[in-house]
């Protein structure tokens, strides 16, 4: 049980409601408090009767948002009497607000798209910004099917972020009492650049041996978790998206060992935010200085 709350970005959309439903189940399962946050850049209404550029925030929009968050909190509390759930209405960009709130959260949960304050979620800036800069794990709730007894899926490439993702995936599988399936994928070179006599089976077998060796110590630490591994010669994003069809959660690091080092959120995690068939947990490697600020 964590004293740090699970925070849900809420805006009243169907997608946000799905995020609340997932977060409520997680909070109930773990005994963690739940905080619903509505963050909004408030519309400015011109003061028509006043000279000059005077303006004020749209108080009607604020009242509607307050009612919306209060109703959502009341519904969650009514449906789950033992759940500690509160709501908060904050001014500002949703991405900035959630990043700041994540300093004191155990988890941030978002829907796959929203309206109003979260209108751009998963179409660009908000989802990428929160997943890139959050100070705790971020789960983006995707997929229409629910597979409560299904396995947890993790993508691992040996990078520091993917190892953190592996640890988180093992913890989730252990807590949920389900198996963990770990996938490593490598992208074969195009025929033009492929070395002569390249045998993909040899490379795949070597990658599989490396992955199994990596998991040996983790299997000892989590003896009750059934762990299976798989290595595929294909695009990692495509492999994980396809494998997510029958998983209850897919876990990846915010960036891997390949690609452009300047990108703060890797291509695999970004693609999964768009194409996964189940909720996606993005795990970020937090710099020591930032971690100290978070713990303070």
TrEMBL record:
Record bears the keyword Zinc-finger: no
Pfam families for this protein: Usp
Membrane-spanning residues: none
GO MF assignments: ATP binding
InterPro entries: Rossmann-like_a/b/a_fold, Universal_stress_UspA, UspA
All residue ranges annotated as the UspA domain in the record: 4-142, 151-284
Keyword ATP-binding applies: yes
The entry's keywords: ATP-binding, Nucleotide-binding
Similarity field: Belongs to the universal stress protein A family.
Entry protein name: Universal stress protein
Organism, as annotated: Micromonospora orduensis
